[in-house]
Write a structure and sequence with these properties.
The chain is α+β, with helices and mostly antiparallel strands. Helices cover about 40% and strands about 45% of the residues. The protein has a single domain (about 1-140), classed as Nuclear Transport Factor 2, Chain: A, CATH 3.10.450. It has three helices and six strands; from the N terminus they run ααββαββββ. It has a six-stranded mixed sheet with strand order 2-1-6-5-4-3. A hairpin with a 5-residue loop joins β1 and β2. The relative contact order is 0.17.
Length: about 140
């Protein structure tokens, strides 16, 4: 009897660990899909990846919603040329919420229209919505 209980507990524990690893991988994939979509101006992908209630705070204090973020990309006001993720860590908060910390090199359009290169540390909050991991908050800090 005790052996059966131990086996059941072990099975549940291993299943939980495997589930968490799968979810972490799914969140990492969503983060990388966001990076690819902004560089590629893939607006249909961004519509899926970005949550409707997105809060996006840039390193220059400008804030965006989902609509303003996508509209700025479409109009050419904003442009990502390169977004290379150097380090990425996913922390699961619960089965519907995850934090992603990353350090990345960005090449973006500067206010004067030139290309600017920045190393940014970002904190992203992802929330699972309808089976999809969506970016719901972004905060970045520029490397001094």
């Amino acid at each position: 009897m005790i052996r059966r209980i131990v086996l059941i507990v072990l099975f549940i524990t291993l299943s939980t660990v495997a589930f968490a690893a799968d979810e972490k991988a799914a969140v990492e994939a969503a983060e990388r899909a966001w990076a690819k979509a902004v560089v590629g101006n893939d607006y249909p992908a961004l519509e899926k990846i970005l949550a409707d209630d997105l809060y996006y705070s840039h390193s220059n204090f400008i804030e965006d919603t989902k609509r303003s973020y996508i509209d700025n990309l479409k109009s050419g006001k904003a442009r990502y040329y390169v977004l290379d993720i150097e380090t990425l860590k996913v922390r699961m908060i619960d089965d519907r919420t995850a934090l992603v910390g990353a350090v990345s090199e960005y090449q973006t359009k500067a206010p004067d229209g030139s290309r600017q290169t920045s190393i940014l540390k970002t904190l992203h909050v992802f929330r699972k919505n309808g089976g999809l991991w969506q970016l719901t908050a972004h905060q970045s800090a520029r490397k001094p």
